[in-house]
TrEMBL record:
Residues passing through the membrane, by range: none
Source organism, top-level taxon: Bacteria
Enzyme Commission identifier(s): 5.2.1.8
An MF annotation (GO) of this entry: isomerase activity
Name of protein: peptidylprolyl isomerase
Pfam families: Rotamase (PF00639)
UniProt xrefs under SUPFAM superfamilies: FKBP-like (SSF54534), Triger factor/SurA peptide-binding domain-like (SSF109998)
Biased composition (Low complexity): 310-323
Length: 323
């Protein structure tokens, strides 16, 4: 059951700044927030200072959070989120260090939990809107392991080898793996220069098309389960790639589906903006300020703006093997 029949987006500065102050909170641009002998500060003054776009973003975020929680709270397992956060805390050296890191970003642990919940609700929204078949998941994903022999990126690189030596070493390892394919993991652990995957016997988990550099990906998707590639060169060095058995596909399917949906949204942000619009219509959202409505439509509900933001985020957070 819905919490409310009509959700009114909080659009005035007073709603954002004084919403917790009780019944005296103002609701008009002409209302006074602070008075003095030097002059009054009105809601309109604060809105002009903050800017319609920032107010629109905050207002929309508050409204969207309420709607998504109302619609999907019964479909999201909060225990899974708690377990994920506990794992993250362990990776950062414990709860205290994790909370200290969050504090540096201006967040509390509860803020972070709420963000994780919101992300889960948004994934559920997109899962409802974007249809992805099991066949599409199978065609666009591959479970893989690899052994990487790095090539020096520059003269100061102490880890990599010269191109000639790296190639020779990779070719030698490839022949060894071909003779003893069952020892791939053991060899990867010993020889691979990709530290993060080496400790997992070379495992990269499931690779989604578009995730890796093209030469790596092209070689991987030609392989059948259990097969090992020839030596493959990329900008990072020389790889020996193995297509692993996908015996846990059913268990990983929902995560892989989410990744494919994420890729679809990155390519076509209109998928997300249309999903938002449908949701706003379903919940009878009513903007009470025309400037805020215009700002929301020109930014948050504008697929071109989202595409620009996505491109910026992708370029700044690309991983070492990502294309």
């Amino acid at each position: 059951m819905k919490i409310m029949n009509k959700l009114i987006v909080p659009v005035t500065a007073s709603a954002l700044l004084l919403g917790a102050c009780g019944s005296n909170a103002t609701d008009s641009e002409s209302n006074t927030l602070i008075s003095s002998k030097a002059g009054d500060v009105k809601v309109k003054d604060v809105m002009n200072k903050i800017g319609d776009e920032q107010i629109a973003s905050t207002s929309f975020s508050i409204a969207l959070n309420k709607i998504l929680e109302d619609k999907y709270k019964d479909k999201v397992d909060t225990k899974d989120i708690e377990d994920e956060i506990k794992k993250e805390q362990k990776q950062y050296g414990g709860k205290d260090q994790f909370e200290s890191m969050l504090k540096q970003q201006g967040m509390t642990l509860n803020d972070y939990k709420e963000q994780k919940k919101l992300a889960a609700y948004q994934k559920q929204l997109l899962a409802d809107k974007v249809k992805v078949s099991d066949k599409e998941i199978k065609d666009n994903t591959k479970k893989a392991s690899h052994i990487l022999i790095k090539v020096k990126s520059n003269s100061d690189d102490k880890e990599g080898l010269s191109d000639k030596k790296a190639k020779e070493k990779a070719e030698k390892i490839q022949k060894e793996v071909e003779k003893n394919p069952e020892k791939f993991g053991e060899i990867a652990k010993k020889e691979s220069m990709d530290a993060s995957s080496a400790k997992k016997n070379g495992s990269l988990g499931y690779v989604v098309k578009g995730q890796m550099v093209s030469k790596f990906e092209k070689a991987l998707f030609k392989l059948k389960e259990g097969q090992v590639s020839d030596v493959v060169k990329t900008d990072y060095g020389y790889h020996i790639i193995k297509a692993d058995k996908e015996n846990d596909f059913d268990k990983q399917k929902s995560k892989l589906k989410a990744k494919l949906i994420e890729q679809k949204v990155q390519k076509d942000p209109e998928i997300l903006t249309d999903a938002y619009k449908d949701l706003l219509k379903e919940y009878d959202v009513d903007y009470k300020d025309s400037d805020i409505k215009k700002a929301v439509e020109n930014t948050i509900l504008n697929p071109d703006k989202l595409k620009q933001q996505s491109s910026s985020d992708s370029s700044s957070s690309a991983s070492s093997l990502s294309s």
